[in-house]
Every structure is written in C-alpha cells, then in structure tokens.
C-alpha cells in the first residue's frame, strides 16, 4: 500500500462524522453534463437524510435540464479555508425525481418528512412553501469519498 493510500484512509470521515457534516452544511456544488458533453457545476442548498441527498432545484434551470437528459451526477460539499482545515464529501450516482415538477404541494409520501426538514434548515420555517418553480431530486449515492485534513497531525506549520 502506498503512502497516499494510507493517508487517504487516515483522513477519511467516519460514518458518524460524515452524517454530522452533511447534516450541518447547507450548500453543495452539483456537477452535471449537458447532452453535448459540456460540464456544468452550480451551487445548491440540500438536505441529507442519513441515506440520500435531497436537492431542491429550479425546474427551468440548466442543472435540471442536464439531470433530465442524463441522471448521472456528482456533488461536493466542503468546508475550510486553510489547507489543514479542509474537509468534505463527494457523492456520486444517479438522480431520482420525486414529486411533481414543478412542485406545487400535491401530496407525496416520499416528501412528507423531507420538506419540513428542508424548510426548517434553510428558511427557519416549520413547513415548506411551494412556488411552482422548484422540484425535488434525490441522490442515493453509489459512491462516497470523504476527507478531513484536520486529522493530519504531521502538517508543516507556516
């Protein structure tokens, strides 16, 4: 095993660390690919439910059009300013669309728990409001990679 591989395992987040991090963070970066192969990355608020990342996106956006054409996606959530503070998670897989698009508030069992949590986390509200412009997508990742450079004790000091 190489030094890089050993270091990668040393800085990987535990399941509990990953859950706590994704629960507290608000903004992710969503990477999609257009039909012509052009990549696109955009910031978006999200909700982590312990298994899936829920994205609430404008239904008339390039991101949404890309996801409709090709459901493959990679999402990064990260934090930290200095090298030794950097920590984050990359999640990748295929998007599933949930509820009507755009969302108007029709009853949807899959969104009953998600919408109040998202509304509280991002808007400080007890229930979700629906503007008829956004829609839900769920990423249950096939792959998760994490890093936490704060775990490195052998970093040189400036």
Backbone shape: globular
Report the sheet-strand fraction.
25-35%
CATH superfamily: Electron Transport, Fmn-binding Protein, Chain A
| Euclidean distance between termini CA atoms | 30 Å
CATH class: Mainly Beta
The CATH architecture would be Roll
Record the strand order, biggest sheet: 1-2-3-6-5-4
Key features of this structure:
globular; six-stranded antiparallel beta barrel; 23% helix; single chain; disordered N terminus; Pnp Oxidase, Chain A; alpha+beta; 4 helices; 158 residues
Describe this structure in words.
With 158 residues, the chain is an alpha+beta fold. The protein has one domain (3-149): Roll (Pnp Oxidase, Chain A), CATH 2.30.110. It is 23% helix and 35% strand. Strands 1-2-3-6-5-4 form a 6-stranded antiparallel β-barrel. The protein starts with a helix and ends in a 10-residue tail after the last strand. The model is unreliable at 1-5 (pLDDT under 50).
Structure described in brief:
The protein has 158 residues and is α+β, with helices and mostly antiparallel strands. The chain has four helices and seven strands; from the N terminus they run ααβββαββαββ.
């Amino acid at each position: 095993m190489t030094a890089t591989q050993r270091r990668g395992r040393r800085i990987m987040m535990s399941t509990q660390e990953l859950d706590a991090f994704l629960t507290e963070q608000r903004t992710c970066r969503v990477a999609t690919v257009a039909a012509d192969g052009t990549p696109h990355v955009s910031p978006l608020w999200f909700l982590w439910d312990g298994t899936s990342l829920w994205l609430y996106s404008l239904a008339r956006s390039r991101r949404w059009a890309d996801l409709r054409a090709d459901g493959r996606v990679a999402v990064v959530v990260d934090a930290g300013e200095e090298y030794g503070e950097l920590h984050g998670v990359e999640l990748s897989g295929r998007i599933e669309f949930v509820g009507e698009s755009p969302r108007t508030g029709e009853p949807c069992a899959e969104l009953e728990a998600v919408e109040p949590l998202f509304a509280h986390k991002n808007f400080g509200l007890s229930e979700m409001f629906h503007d008829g412009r956004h829609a839900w997508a769920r990423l249950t990742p096939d792959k998760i990679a994490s890093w936490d450079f704060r775990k490195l004790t052998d970093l040189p000091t400036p």
